[in-house]
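Summary of Year 1 activities. Much of the first year was spent building the evaluation harness for sequence design. The harness presents a backbone, in tokenized form, and records the residue chosen at every position. We chose the following record to illustrate the format because it has been used consistently in internal testing since the harness was completed.
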């Protein structure tokens, strides 16, 4: 069973990548029993909707330029190294 920290991390990751079947099932089970994490899920949803509205009002669409592949790779490497330091 996931703890709240892992469940919140998976909720955030789910907006960036598809969750594995194991992750998805674990998250859904956790959300069934944890009111706090269900609230966090709702907050994430509201924040995401608000950001989309802001982007739409500024004319920023799905075709807007984002980070370069090199920048994304660099960020992912840095995040991975920080995760390794914590464990």
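For this record, the design step produced the sequence shown next.
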């Amino acid at each position: 069973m996931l703890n709240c920290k892992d469940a919140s991390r998976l909720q955030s990751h789910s907006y960036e990548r598809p969750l594995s079947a194991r992750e998805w099932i674990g998250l859904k089970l956790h959300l069934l029993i944890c009111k706090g994490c269900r609230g966090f899920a709702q907050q994430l949803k509201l924040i995401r909707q608000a950001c989309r509205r802001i982007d739409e009002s500024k004319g920023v669409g799905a075709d807007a330029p984002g980070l370069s592949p090199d920048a994304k790779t660099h960020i992912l490497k840095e995040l991975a190294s920080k995760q390794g330091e914590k464990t």
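Residues 4-86 form one domain. Quantitative recovery figures across the full test set are reported in Table 2.
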